Amino acid sequence: MRRRMLMVILVLLAASPISQASAMDIASLLAAAREQPDIQEKELAVAEADLRVTEAYSALFPKLGLYGRYEDYSSPTNMRPFFPTEGNAAQGNSLEFSRTIARYGATAQMPLYVKALYTVADQLKLLKDKAVTAKQIDLVRKEATVVALNSLFTSLVRSDAALTGREASLQDALAMTERKVALGRAAEADRLKIQKALSDLAQQHNDLRMKILDVQRDLRKLTGIALDAPVPMRPIADVQPGPFLALRVLEADVAAAQKDVQRAQEQFYPTLSLEGGLSLNEGTAYNTGSHVERSYNFVALVLRIPLFDKTLFAANDIANVKVRRAEQTLEQNKRDLSALAQNLQDKGPVLARATAVAQEIVETQTRLLQIARVAYRNERLTTEEYLRYEADVLQAEAGLYQAQNDQWQVLAQQAVLYGMALTGVVQ
């Protein structure tokens, strides 16, 4: 029986999820985020863009093919261009005319000069660079989100612990008040006030735990790891200002749109290509009924010059409008990102001072609560006043944790702004 119970316990332990927070650090969490399917999808997008460049250059290579046709005409038709002196019907020769003709052979075509093909290839190279930058942006944004969520997780857990501390303090005050009520030294209303404060704390506990569950869900979506507690982290370097990474994507859009204008203009250029074909034609001669086979081959140097095509003018106008739109989008984003960068830089010292002040307020409020607790015990302080001191400590601790979290949020936003990997910033 004991052996069976032991086996059941071992099976349950093996099947139950094991907390990974104890063996997890922020570097491992960021590494896990980089291995998720959405990042792998971006890798495939880069590979696809690279293949599209190869596809564009492939248009410069010869195209070879085979073909076969079976034709049925209402009257005898020549199998190939026929020179009058080739056949002599009066002597009974089979003429190369038939009502049913089978044709099969090979074709070849190769562009010698088509300027637009090179422009398309250059445009696709720019789009490949854009895909590489987009992947880098997504990776940095995901790392920053993991750091921001872990900071929020830490803040919520610390706030929850602060609530637990206040609950323990109020439980002591409640026990003391109940003794006073029993001795007739305090009113029943004082006990009810403390119980009401405890109920409020319990409600705040529930609200915090709901937020913690949401943060755990979001972290699991980003990393694939179920965390029971936030992982420790500390900044080891500042995010160095530099070019805005998001602008590289928009600059690639502008450059690609300019190539589109160039390509539209090159549609007016002459094109030169080499074409050729081998054709074997078979049929039944209409005048003798005998089987006839004739080959017909050619090589051609083809020059095409567009003279008038209204759609080319419209395509050129559309391409020019796209360039102007891309340029305006780039300019607006430059202004927006510059304003955001300055705002984040200005917030840094303010949040540092706010954190230091919040720490001082916590220490002061904690000391005042200790004094208030002694005064309440000696009946020199009302219940309302004592509860106010408890609430002040809780508010001060919440302010400290919020200030610390705000600093991490600024760091995460700066990392996304400048495209800096957080693996060298956070440890």
How would you sum up this structure, described in words?
- It is a single chain.
- The protein has 427 residues and is α+β, with helices and mostly antiparallel strands.
- It folds into 2 domains: 62-113 and 273-305, no CATH class; 114-270 and 311-427, Outer membrane efflux proteins (OEP) (Up-down Bundle).
- 64% of the residues lie in helices and 14% in strands.
- The protein has a 4-stranded antiparallel sheet, with no helix packed on it.
- A hairpin with a 6-residue loop joins strand 3 and strand 4 (291-304).
- It is elongated.
List keywords for this structure.
alpha+beta, 2 domains, 64% helix, four-stranded antiparallel sheet, 4 strands, Outer membrane efflux proteins (OEP), 427 residues, elongated, disordered N terminus
CATH topology of the largest domain: Outer membrane efflux proteins (OEP)
* Parts with pLDDT < 50 across at least 5 consecutive residues: 1-22
Taken together, the total number of domains comes to 2
In CATH terms, what is the architecture of the largest domain?
Answer: Up-down Bundle
Question: CATH-wise, what's the superfamily of the largest domain?
Answer: Outer membrane efflux proteins (OEP)
The CATH class of the largest domain is identified as Mainly Alpha
Shape: elongated
How are the strands of the biggest sheet laid out side by side? 1-2-3-4
- Tell me the number of helical segments per DSSP (H or I, 4 or more residues long): 8
N- to C-terminal separation?
50 Å
Taking all Cα atoms into account, the compactness measure Rg is: 40 Å
The arrangement of helices and strands along the chain is: HHHEEHHHEEHH
User: What is the total tally of β strands?
Assistant: 4
- Class derived from helix and strand content: alpha+beta
Most strands sheet: 4 strands, antiparallel
- What percent strand? 5-15%
